[in-house]
Amino acid sequence: MKALFRRLTYSPSRVIIFIFLIPIHIAVVGADTFDTLSIQREINGHRPLFDCPECIDNKEQANTSSMTAGNHQLEKDIDIIVTYTDTSGAIRIKTIKSKNLSPSWVWKNPIDDNQVKKKSTVQNQPDTRIQNNNELLTDINKQPHKPSFPVHPAKLRRQALRQERRDRRTAELIQVAEKRDIQMQEAAIERAKTFDTSVKAKYSIWRREYESPNSDSTVKLMRDQIIMAKAYATIAKAKNATGIYDSLIKHSKRSQLAIGEAAFDSELKPSAVDRAKEMGHILSLAKDQFYDCILMARKLRVMLQSTESNVEEVKKKSASLTQLAAKTVPKPLHCLPLVLTTDYFLLPENQKNLPESKNLENPNLYHYAIFSDNVLATSVVVNSTVLHAKDPEKHVFHIVTDKLNFAAMKMWFLVNPPGGSTIQVQNVDEFTWLNSSYCPVLRQLESSRMREYYFKAHQTSTLTAGSDNLKYRNPKYLSMLNHLRFYLPEVYPKLEKILFLDDDIVVQKDLSPLWSVDLGGMVNGAVETCKESFHRFDKYLNFSNPKISENFDPYACGWAFGMNMFDLNEWKKRDITGIYHGWQNANEERTLWKLGTLPPGLITFYNMTHPLERSWHVLGLGYDPALNQSEIKNAAVVHYNGNYKPWLDLAIAKYRSYWSRYVKFDNPYLQLSITSSSRLSNWVSKIKEASLSGRWQEVLSLYNDLNRSGVHITESSLFHPILKASSAISFAHGKSLHASVIKLGVESCTSIANSIMDFYTKAGHIGSTITLFGSMNHVDSISWNILISGHIDHGDFDRGIRSFIQARATGFEPNISTLVLVIQAIRTLGLFHEGEKLHGYMIKTEFSAISSLQNSLLSMYADASINHAQKLFDEMLNRDVITWSVMISAYVKTNKTHLALNLFKEMLSKSEVDGQTIVSALKACTNLKNFITGKTLHGFIFHKGLTHDLFLGNSLIDMYSKCHDPNSAFQSWTEMPLKNIISWNSIISGLVYNENHSKAIHLFNSMQYTEIAPDGITLLNLLQISKHSPNPIIPKSIHTVIIRRNHESNELVVNTLIDTYAKCNLIFLAKKLFNLIKTPDVVSWTTMIASFTYCGLPNEAIRVFNKMMESNKKPNAITLLNLIEACSYDSDLKKTKSAHAIAIRTGFASDAIVGTAVLDTYAKYGDIITSRKAFDMILDKNIVSYSAMIGAYGMNGVPRAVVSLLAEMEASGLKPNSVTLLSVLSACSHGGLVHEGLLLFQKLTETLEVKPGPEHYACLVDLLSRSGNLELALKMAEEQKVGASAWGALLSGLRINNYCYNNQKENVLKKAVDCVLELEPDKSNSYMLASNMYAKSGFWEDVARIRGLVRNKQIWVLAGFSMVNVDNKSFKFVAGDRNQFLSNEIRDTIENLHEFMKLDR
User: Fold this and answer.
1) DSSP letter for each residue of 1045-1111
2) What would the mean pLDDT of 39-51 be, rounded to a whole number?
3) 580-619 burial by CB neighbour count: b if 16+ within 10 A, else e?
4) How far is Cα 996 from Cα 964, in angstroms, rounded to an integer?
5) Residue 500: enclosing H or E segment and its boundaries?
6) CB 3.0–4.6 Å: which of 256, 1143, 1250, 1354 could bond 1149 by disulfide?
């Protein structure tokens, strides 16, 4: 043994081998480049072969034999047999030759005990590749009783180089993979930019299944659950788990019953959702107990194979039945020739022949050849050809039929002669020259082998077994009528050209131009039918036969019999019939083609066929339901080639009308042959089929054909699809059908009446629906549902709810759709009490568990009471996206934005998020001005891939704009791949909101170069810009855009334009525009009153108000606000009291807005008593009313009343705000209540969390300054960094208290003046106050300096004035105005006053 090991060690191959035959265990140390991946997988996955005791007992003998023969086997070859199991569990065997293995493969011999123990460990571990052979040798050396063998250095170098190449290749592949990932990401981004996110319909939070009735997600889910349940049930049964097996079977049956025949979710029963949840629970239990990936894959694979086998079986049966139906003559077509034949033989002999005509052999006329045994089909061909012929008298039809139908064919055309055309009917059996000695087909049919071939299908016992042979039994393959087309010159020897027509075609245009087509010396003119590989020669001929392959091109384009123009002169020259005979004789053993006439036709007319334009002949109406409709309509001839002939029940419904329109259903023979019941059944099936596919035009066409056939509709189920088609296309058809119902006397049928009600409801004739409902003898739940839905859908919510209440009293059971509509109506009308009652009804029934109804109730409660909505939300166990979205939106609408954002965060961990929910969250951020959270939501939108959602993009623009970040808003707008008018309006509005007017105008100009036209909202935003611009050209330019864009009829735009003109001091244009309005509404009148008031023309404003009252327009609160302001211009209270009286008469005096304006006006006039009365008249006082009254008390020197009113306000439950605090401080300042003012300031800022601003500190400085606490006032002004008003108040305090007459305080004065002028450099009040203070202190140089600043800066000094009302006329006296016209009496009075007041002029 040692000698053997030594010899192997020093062998030239330098391979270390330990050989054993059973078991074979191969460890891969390092494979060469040619080692395949499949070998690696198979060896790594093998299993040992020691499975039997006999194998183990014979182990020693096998090892001994392998040791003795090892070197010999190595020199020759060794077959290595490996067993393993694949992923399906099947045992596989693989044989590998040792010569195919690289030198790095090692054979191990586990002879000794240590190696046997090692083997037991290795068998339970996967084979691994060892990177370094030195490590392998070290491990082997460490093992006891294991001899060590050196490894050649060259081999080690090869392994090192091989490993280096692997590492380098791995790095290259990783780099390539990273580059491809980057390319895929870039491609995905580019693709996303072109994604269409335009709005196709109105966004709604309601469930999609109520918008799309064809949703089937729940049905699919339940069917998948049933499949999984069957798979788990099989496993459970195999493991004797009877409990879970019974549960799976039971729930499968319940789910199947719940699905029933439903194809869409809307057709499911209300209990279907519960069944799906129950099935999901039991499937979860089964998965936890039995889930095994490999086992489950096997079960599903078996089920798939079984299903595929069933599908294949059904396909075979379907093909068999189709062939059977195609060759079966329908009963009406069978009866028609019998009736015609009977009448034909009853005719006198002199009336049995068609009129003789010389046209039959006139080559200058248009001749047609029709070979058929179908009377009705032939009549359609003739009728359609004659109907479209320009000169029917020039058309001659040569009809050949068999002996059985000869009499019937003649009788039909005797009774129904085509207008002006010539008809010839012949019997093929009378062609004595057509016999077996001349015709190869007849000779072949006489042989026993051919008969056995054609009729061998009778040997089969099942449909499936004979499916391939049934078509051989079709009579068309045996009838000589089918082969007569190859003998046209013999049948019509005196004709030059003839057009061959099959009996399954319909002519739609005049065919006479075909005789003018130059065939170019060819015999046959036909339309080619090849489409790529379809309908080429190799489809019909056996190209494995050398006779075919040597003579024909397999890719030659084929054509079809059906409409073929034959040049009979060329036919005779080229002996076409002889060619046909030759090939037919060669195919006696059926080795060239199987059957039919098209293959021999392709061979016979090979290179002798002229291709016609495709518009002449369109094929496929008998087998292809996906033909181009425009091609069919534009074709001269349409061909029903295939099994689905138009006269069969198999016919494709949408093509039938092209054929049936030429059938004379009023013909008495058809009336006798086709019974009403059979025809009605046929019509019903086709109308229902077309209705299910949504082919409404075809439904109405079939209905019209049904009426023309004279069949009366008696089946109630037929009315609904016809009425549904009428709703989609023609209201007149529906009314006509209603009249037919009344004539038939079936209007008492509830289902028919319901269908008619539904038709009138969808057509918008709700009055007809109500009338029909009232005339019904019996109404059911469907009737009530239609009536209630009709009322609500058409906006009559009140009547809809009353009908619902009335229906409930009769025991009516509503469906889910009706309940959703009723809840919406209750929500719209605000009938919260009715909603609660409906909620109670739903709790008593099983409707309370339906998510869509719960969401509808939640929306109703959200509008009525947020607390009720919160309670219902907490009670809902199954919350979907709509539930969360409704609740978040409700919080936002009720200004509980913090709760909305918290709920949104909770939703992220429990549910998916849709765009509508994110829009609500962004609205919450907008209301809170929470820029940080809004930006976080922006990142969330990007992460979710929702950047193409227009709703979200527009909401982001609005959020950034309202949070005063116009740059981010503009960037979001720029990054939107698609923009609509709302996007443009949002960004323009945001820029206007942030006073970036120039950029907004620039953006509007760029909008002119896009496909999006500005709308009214865009123009409103631009008009807001005009109000802030002194340039009058801007509003005029916008006015021209309004005219060009036809927005003059938009009342909102026109009213805003009037207001804009007024704000730009263009009141004459505002008045002119107002006069152009034909019938101004309240808003227009109010806008004009406000415009005159703004421009200082109160009398004009009052005059406009009087005209408004004369036009019987009732003013609103805003109208009265502007009227009161206009009246306040007068120095007399008379007009103000008149306006107050109007407010009392119109009922607006108790309104908080109007009442507050009235009390403020009286306060400004000094009538604090009447002001208090106006305040007491306000019913619902708010914080604004109290603040105004507090200001009125302060203005009129009643500071003590301020303190008591503040206490009254707090007692009413209202909390003072910053405006209230300002009014209180102002009142205390003017009233000298320093201590009280300071206490109230401290109380309101500390206890009520009112944050004081600069205006509050300015008022506080004024309070301290007026009371003489100048040091404290100065200290507060310096510490709080107050504004100009505070320093102005300090200067006023210095003047009042003569503080500045002390020369030591000169610095205080100058500091206050410098601060005032620095903070308000453009206001005249600051300069006048500083000038007066310097003058009072005697600093005349500073006075001159201040006045010089006023002149240099060209500051407009507003002069003070006073008004005196005398005899209803107001006289204005302006300070320093000596040029105004004054009477001598007034001048003398002024002089006396000046002297009395000791004032200089």
Assistant:
1) TT-TT-HHHHHHHHHHHHHTT-HHHHHHHHHT-SS--HHHHHHHHHHHHHTT-HHHHHHHHHHHHHT
2) 38
3) bbebbeebeeeebbebbbbbbbbbbbbebbbebeeebbbb
4) 11
5) strand 497-501
6) 1143
Measured distance CA(1377)–CA(1390) in Å, rounded: 13
Could you give the CA distance from residue 105 to residue 86 in angstroms, rounded to a whole number?
A: 24
Query: How many Cα atoms occupy the beta-carbon half-sphere of 694 within 13 Å?
Result: 1
More confident residue, 52 or 1158: 1158
DSSP reduced 3-state for 1363 = strand
Distance in angstroms (rounded) separating the CA atoms of residues 623 and 632: 14
Q: For residues 388 and 506, what is the distance between their CA atoms, to the nearest angstrom?
A: 11
Report the DSSP beta bridge partners of residue 1356: none
Separation CA 704–CA 656 (nearest Å): 13
The answer to whether 195 and 948 have CB atoms below 8 angstroms apart is yes
CA-CA-CA-CA torsion sign (914, 920, 926, 931): negative
In this prediction the pTM is 0.46
Q: Is 642 left (phi over 0), alpha (psi -120 to 50) or beta?
A: left
Q: How far apart are CA 982 and CA 977, in angstroms?
A: 14
Report whether the peptide linkage leading into residue 977 is cis, meaning its omega lies within 30 degrees of zero.
Answer: no
Which amino acid type is present at position 52? C
128: three-class secondary structure by DSSP: coil
Nearest to 1363 by CA among 1096, 983, 1076: 1096
**Triad 856, 858, 859: Cα angle to 5°:** 65
Amino acid at 827: R
pLDDT at 1343 (0 to 100): 63
Residues whose CB falls within 8 Å of the CB of residue 91, separated by 6 or more in sequence, listed in order:
83, 84, 85
For the chain, give the number of residues. 1401
Q: Decide: 1400 and 1393 in contact? Cβ < 8 Å.
A: no
Residue at 604: amino acid letter: T
Phi, psi of 370 (to 5 degrees): -130, 115
Q: Which of 649, 493, 513, 500 is nearest to 568 (CA)?
A: 493
Assign 1306 to helix, strand or coil. Answer: helix
> Angle 90-94-97 (CA atoms, 0-180°, nearest 5)?
175
Q: Quick count: other Cβ atoms within 10 Å of Cβ 349?
A: 6
For 234-381, list the strands marked E by DSSP: 366-371
| β-strand partners of 302 | none
CA distances (Å), origin 546, targets 543, 551, 552, 590 = 7, 8, 10, 14
Band of the pLDDT at 74, cuts 50, 70, 90? very low
pLDDT attached to residue 1375: 64
The whole-number pLDDT of residue 140 equals 34
Q: How sure is the predictor about 10, in pLDDT bands with cuts at 50, 70 and 90?
A: very low
Helix or strand holding residue 454 (H, E): helix 448-454
Q: Give the residue with greater pLDDT, 146 vs 698.
A: 698
Range 1041-1066 average pLDDT: 85
The set of residues, in sequence order, having a beta carbon less than 8 Å from that of 626 and lying 6+ positions away, is none
Instruction: Identify which has the larger pLDDT, 1227 or 1344.
Output: 1227
Residue 527 has a pLDDT of: 92
Query: What is the C-alpha to C-alpha distance for residues 138 and 297, in angstroms, rounded to an integer?
Result: 44
Q: 40-54, 163-177, 1067-1081: which range is least confident on average?
A: 40-54
The rounded distance, in Å, linking the Cα atoms of 1247 and 1387 is 58
Return the axis-axis angle of helices 1284-1296 and 1306-1319, rounded to nearest 10°.
150
Q: Which residues pair with 868 in a beta bridge?
A: none
What's the pLDDT at 398? 95
- At residue 1358, the pLDDT reads 59
User: Which has more confidence, 665 or 234?
Assistant: 234
